[in-house]
Amino acid sequence: FRLALRPGVRPVLATVFLEGAIVLGVFAYVSSHLHDHFGLRFDQVGLILAMFGVGGLLFAFLSSPLVRTLGESGLVMLGSGLIAAAMAAAALTDSVVPFFAIAPVLGLGFTMLHNTLQTRATQMAPANRGSAVSLFASMFFLGQMTGVAIAGWSYDHWGAIPGFAVSAALTPLLAAAFALHLRQTKKND
Asked: Residue 189 pLDDT > 90, yes or no?
């Protein structure tokens, strides 16, 4: 419990909680949207959602030059921009075809943002690294749970588009706040 009260730990935990809620909580309803709105079979939905993982693999191949070029703050901002663009495109399109690009862009952006957060989690309490990473994972999953519950209620009332729009709007704000924290932390090091 005392670990969560440390000043350098709270921004990381708050960010990963909100990331889980506003990105993956909303992403959980992409499959329902593709099935309900476009009438896709679930095998077709699965093919599109697998493209999210392709975006993550793309980051694995590009991570070294991206980290060198952009640094942590740049990864956070570019990743959130990709997430926002993908979620906005999901909200605006009335065709299933763009989802073949939306899913990998979302996967790439999420991996850029989340891997930077995860790296920070391993560094936020070096003497208690195991506890810190465990707390980080718990906050991430609690955020997802919260996001799925809220997005589910929203989906039942209005469909997926408001959730996509909220995610597109909030993710860059979350990332900007965390990037500011990274810059301030770097100044203090």
From this structure: no
Measured CA to CA, the distance from residue 186 to residue 115 in angstroms comes to 18
**Which of 131, 151, 108, 111 has its CA nearest to residue 13?**
131
Rounded Cα distance between 2 and 150, Å, is 29
CA distance 73 to 187: 13
Q: What predicted TM-score, i.e. pTM, was given to this entire model?
A: 0.95
96 class by beta-carbon count within 10 Å (0-12 exposed, 13-18 middle, 19+ buried): middle
* 61 pLDDT above the threshold of 80: yes
- What is d(CA 74, CA 80) in angstroms, rounded to the nearest whole number? 10
pLDDT digits over 144-184, tens only? 999 999 999 999 999 999 999 999 999 999 999 999 999 88
Residues in the chain: 189
Measure Cα distances from 154 to 29, 84, 157, 165 in Å.
Answer: 10, 19, 5, 12
